[in-house]
C-alpha cells in the first residue's frame, strides 16, 4: 500500500506540471497571435477567434439558452452544446491537419495509384520513364520525360495492408564505375580469360588437397530421400514427410557439395509447401532480393560468366545478329523483353560506336514485370541511367524508355515505333515468366507473340532453357531435381568451394526459382518453362519463320567456349538452334525468327 503522504506529494507535483504546461501553451498562443494578426490585416481578413474566445462565446450562448429553461434541462442542454462544440472543433482540426498531409498520389512520385483493390490481380498503376541523349551535335544534354503506362500485377504492399506506394530514398550507388566496366565491357578482353584460367587453377589446387569430409555427400541416398519426401508431401502425409525431412537435413548442408546444397534448398521448399506457407516464403525471399543493390547482382553475373559460357555466348549471339541486320541503318530500335539489369547492352553500345561512318541513333525500350515494393520501376529506371552514361562515353546518340507492365497488356502504341528505324525484338529467358494457356483461355504467352508480330521486327532473338514445368507437383519436382542437379554439378566442377561469390550466384539465380517451383502452386508459379521443341512449335503457330544460324556466329561462339572454359561444356547448331550444354545434356538454346508475311497469318 502506498504511503498517503507520498501519494499526496505525487498528485501535487503532477498538478504543478499540468499548470506549467497550460501557462506555456497560453504564452505560445499569445505570441503566435501577435505574429499572425498583421498578416490578416494586410490581406483584409478578420483574424479568427482564439480558442479561449470561442469557449467564452460558447459559455455565453449556453447561459442565454439556459435562462429560458428549467434547471434540469439547463444542465442537460449545456452539456450537449459544449460537447457538440468540442466535437466540431475536433473535426475542424482534423480537416485543417489534412491540408498539410501528402495524399497517396503526391507521395507516389514514381508510381501513381490508379485503383486499390483487395484482389492483388486487380491492382493497377502507371509508370514509365524516358531518358534521352540528344543528337551528335548536341551531345551532353539530357532530357527526362514521363509517359503513361498501365499494368497490373501482384503487389506486396497491398498484401501487407499498405495501399500507398511511397518513394524510398535511394542509397548512394554508382551508376557506372570501374567494376561495371570490367564486367560489362570485358567479354572479349584478355582479363576475362585470365580470370577463367585463374579460377580453374584454384579449383585444381583445391582438388589436389582432397575433399573435406564435411562436403562429402552420398548422392544416391540424398536423391532417393528427396524423391520419397516429395511423394509424402504430395499427399500431405505430415508424419512421413517430417521424418524424411529430418533425414534429409542430416545428409544435406548449405555449405556442402552440390547435391547437399541442392537438398538443403529443396528441403526448405518442401517444408514450406507442407506447412502451407510457400507463397509467403517465396514472397519474402523476392522482397529481400528487390532491396539488394545492383552491384550484388553484378557480382553474381560476373561469377556466372567466368564459371560458365552460357550468358556470354547468348549475349554475343544476340549482339552479333543485331549488328548484322543494322549494318547500314541510321536509326536502331531494340525492344528488350525482360531487360533485367541491362547487362547485355553496354557491349553493344561500344560495338556500335566503332561502326564505319559513325554510329546510328540507338533507342532501347526495356520492358520488365513490376517489382514488389514501394517502387516497381526503380530498377528499370536505374538501367536507363546506366545505359545513358555508357552512350555518352562512347558518343552514341541514345534514347531509352522503360516500361513496367504485364507483357500481355502492352499495346503497340506504347512502344512508339517509327517508320524510319530498324526494329529488333530481343527476349533472353523472359517469355517463360509469362503465363500460358493453363492460366487463361486466351494464352498470355501467345498474346505476347502476337504483339511481337504486330511490331514486325527485322529479327526476333529468342533464348530459353531446355526444361518443362508440369502442372502436376510430383512430375515438376523430378524435373527441378534433374535440372538443378546438373546446374549444381556445373558450379561444383567450375567454382572453388572457398570462393565467396559462389554462394551469391546460387542465391541470386538458382534458389528463388527452386523455392517457387516446389513451394508454390497454380498462379503463384512465377515461371512456366517449356522445352526448346515446345517453344519452336509455339512460335511457328504464331506465324514466325525460324532463321538459320549464321555459321560465322557459331564459329565465334565455339571459340569463346574453348577459350579457357571447362572442356565438358559443348556448343552446337541443330535445327536452327544454337545449343549449349554440359556433359552431353542440352541446358539451353537460342535462335532467331522473323514474322511471316503470309496473308493467312
TrEMBL record:
Region (Leucine repeat II (LRII)): 382-414
Organism encoding this protein: Rhynchospora pubera
Name of the featured protein: GRAS transcription factor
Similarity comment: family membership: Belongs to the GRAS family.
Motif interval(s): VHIID: 332-336
Protein keywords: Transcription, Transcription regulation
Region (SAW): 519-594
InterPro entries according to UniProt: TF_GRAS
